[in-house]
Design a protein that fits this description.
Helices cover about 35% and strands about 15% of the residues. With about 100 residues, the chain is an alpha+beta fold. The chain has one domain. A hairpin with a 5-residue loop joins strand 1 and strand 2. The longest helix is centred in the last third of the chain and has 19 residues.
């Protein structure tokens, strides 16, 4: 969830919400990514694009990322979360910046 006083570059992507990602009880999560990256998430079988991406007004880059099962999977998920934050907020952080 994004804090209220944070400048957000891509309000069009989050449609008035304050989320760039959210996690589900099973460990999977939804991320708001550039469309091309969300397609790559699906192609690499890290997750799948949200079934609502074809609905009017729903961002085409929302991906549901599968629960990580290995440390390599976890590294991918962490990278994707940082990418989603960067995309929505308009910054250029790396996972090392948040460690």
């Amino acid at each position: 969830m994004l804090v209220d006083d944070l400048d957000v570059e891509r309000l069009d992507v989050i449609s008035g919400s304050s989320e760039f990602a959210h996690i589900h009880p099973d460990g999977s999560l939804h991320l708001w990514l550039p469309v091309e990256r969300a397609i790559e998430v699906e192609e690499r079988q890290w997750g799948e694009r949200h079934p609502w991406v074809e609905r009017a007004g729903f961002w085409g880059g929302v991906a549901m990322v599968f629960t990580p099962e290995t440390t390599d999977d976890l590294d991918v998920v962490i990278q994707l979360v940082v990418e989603a934050y960067n995309f929505v907020v308009g910054v250029d952080l790396t996972p090392a910046d948040i460690a």
